[in-house]
Design goal:
The complex is a heterodimer of chains A (about 90) and B (about 220).
Chain A: H1 2-21, H2 24-32, H3 40-48, H4 60-69, H5 80-83
Chain B: H1 3-21, H2 47-54, H3 56-66, E1 73-83, E2 94-101, H4 112-132, H5 135-139, E3 145-153, E4 164-172, H6 173-180, H7 186-192, E5 194-199, E6 202-203
Parallel strand pairs in B: 2-3
Antiparallel strand pairs in B: 1-2, 3-4, 4-5, 5-6
Helix pairs in contact in B: 4-6
The chains are: A mainly alpha (about 90), B alpha+beta (about 220).
Chain lengths: ~90, ~220
């Protein structure tokens, strides 16, 4: 029983740590979709960019698939309101 | 339900939770290219919206001219528009073009400033020429100038997410015309223009782009 409680605590701590890393934008994006990834291609593309700041590897095929499969997960890029007044 | 079975379901639930917590964030590869022109009703009320309504055909033609360039650049969603540069809320709107260059890779250079210089050296003049080519807008006194924003993939991801680096150049129409027609050197043009650079959403203080006065020999962008 004690082992189970310990396992549950570890599980909850891992979940809390993972959710704590998500920004409000990421949460909103996640809630907008019924699944975490748009497709298997999207999953493999995201997996390829895990780890300690790996070099992006984006092939033309990825760009085409992102468009046709409507992948989500926007790159971090300057916002229009940082550039323009209106 | 038998205790052993219940424990099994709990174990499965915990495993699923752990697996979900460990999933990477979804990473998108590129902005959609279809809605390149900001709709007139989404422009700021006043002059910008009036210009967007009056010159909708010019904006569409500009978009059409860039279609053959799809291998080398992609127009940012709503990247073609009339917008006022930040800090000039009462100034005239600028004809604005925002593009992703070198889709899928990063320009050469070890620093953001070096990559910005490489991107601008390749794409700056040809894209400003496209903006200048809309002669009805050049002649339109309500258009204050041109803004060109070049964005590209940074050489590293951050927290599993791709990062876009950007350089934004704002200049009045005469300065752009002189640059396009090569009556002023790129360095002189940048000295007269308002230049900003961003690492993701973080702005670099006083970015300096080292540009050669003569073409480097690299083929110009579209």
């Amino acid at each position: 029983m004690r082992v189970r409680i310990r396992a549950l605590l570890v599980t909850l701590a891992a979940a809390a740590a993972a959710t704590g890393c998500a920004t409000s934008e990421q949460w909103a994006e996640w809630r907008e979709h019924s699944s975490h990834f748009a497709s298997g291609d999207h999953l493999f593309f995201s997996m390829r960019h895990q780890g300690e700041n790996p070099t992006p590897r984006v092939r033309q095929r990825d760009l085409d698939e992102a468009r046709t499969q409507a992948w989500w997960g926007e790159p971090i890029v300057v916002r229009p309101d940082q550039l323009f007044s209106g | 339900m038998a205790p052993g079975r219940r424990a099994g379901w709990r174990g499965l639930a915990a495993a699923l939770l752990l697996a979900t917590a460990g999933l990477p964030p979804p990473a998108g590869a590129a902005p959609p290219a279809d809605d390149a022109v900001l709709p007139a009703d989404e422009h700021a009320a006043g002059e910008a919206r009036a210009l967007a309504e009056e010159y909708a055909g010019e904006l569409r033609q500009l978009r059409g001219e860039l279609t053959p360039c799809a291998a080398g650049l992609a127009v940012q969603r709503h990247g073609i528009a009339f917008r006022r540069p930040q800090g000039q809320p009462d100034g005239p709107p600028y004809l604005t073009l925002w593009v992703w260059v070198e889709p899928g890779r990063s320009p050469a250079g070890s620093t953001l400033a070096a990559r910005a210089a490489a991107a601008f050296a390749r794409h700056g003049r040809p894209l400003f020429a496209r903006l200048l080519g809309r002669s009805a807008l050049f002649a339109e006194p309500r258009v204050g100038g041109y803004a060109l924003i070049l964005t590209w993939l940074a050489p590293e991801t951050r927290g599993g997410r791709l990062v876009g680096e950007s350089v934004a150049v704002f200049a009045d129409k005469v300065t752009v015309a002189n640059f396009v027609h090569e009556t002023i050197a790129p360095a002189e043009f940048l000295a007269r223009a308002h230049l900003r650079a961003f690492d993701g959403q973080a702005e670099l203080a006083a970015p300096a782009l080292a540009l050669a006065d003569r073409p480097s020999g690299a083929p110009p962008g579209c």
